[in-house]
Amino acid sequence: MTKMLTKSALALFDSLIAFDTTSRNSNLKLIEWIESYLDGHGVSSHRVASPDGSKASLHASIGPAVEGGIILSGHSDVVPVDGQNWSSDPFAVTRRGDRLYGRGTCDMKGFIALALAGVPLFKDGKRPVHLAISYDEEVGCLGAPALIADIASQLPTPAMAIVGEPTMMKVVTGHKGITVHTVEVLGHEAHSSLTHLGVSANMIAVE
Description:
This protein is α/β, with parallel strands linked by helices. The radius of gyration is 23 Å and the shape is elongated. A five-stranded mixed β-sheet has the order 1-2-6-3-7. Strands 4-5 form a two-stranded antiparallel ribbon. The chain has helices spanning 2-17, 28-40, 105-117, 119-122, 144-154, 201-206; strands spanning 45-49, 56-62, 70-75, 94-96, 99-101, 129-134, 160-163. Helix content is 30%, strand content 16%. The protein has a single domain (2-163), classed as Zn peptidases (Aminopeptidase), CATH 3.40.630.10. The chain is built from six helices and seven strands.
C-alpha cells in the first residue's frame, strides 16, 4: 500500500508542478484539474472564487459528515522564477538522487499531492478529512479568509487543521503573526500663547 501511495503521490506531484500558478497568474486550471481528480473518486468539492473570479480556493470533504475531522490545508500559488538561475525547468519535476526539484515542490504542492493521494484511504475513515486549498498565500494570504468562512458555514466542526508548510520535518504548533490597528487620538486646539487651554493629541498618542 505504501508503494502504491508513493507512486500515486509522485504522479500527482508531476501534474501539480506543471501548472504555473505564480501568484500573478490565475490558478483556475489547477483547481479544475483537482476538481476532476476528486470527481473521479466520487468526492464533490466546492469553489470559493476570488472577487474578480480569476482565481479560486477549493475545499472538499472525504468520509462521514461528522464533527472531529482533520483539515489538510495548502496553498496553490508559488513565488516567481524570474531572473533566477534554474538549471532545470521549474515547472517540471526533475529528480536528482533522492530529491525532487521544481517550483513549489516544498511550498506547497508536495503536501497537496500527498493529501490528494490519500483520498482513497480517507473514504473509509471514521472521521472526515477535509481538503482546503487556497490561492494567493504568497502575497498576503488573500484567499484564506473567504475559504475559512465557507468551511465554517458548510462543514462539521473539525478537531484540528494541519497546514503543510515546509518545516524541516519538525512539528510547528504555532506561527508568527501580525495585527494592524488604526487608532484615532483627539485633542483640543488652542493658540500657542494659550497652550494651557489646549490638549495635545500628539502628547497623548506618545503616552
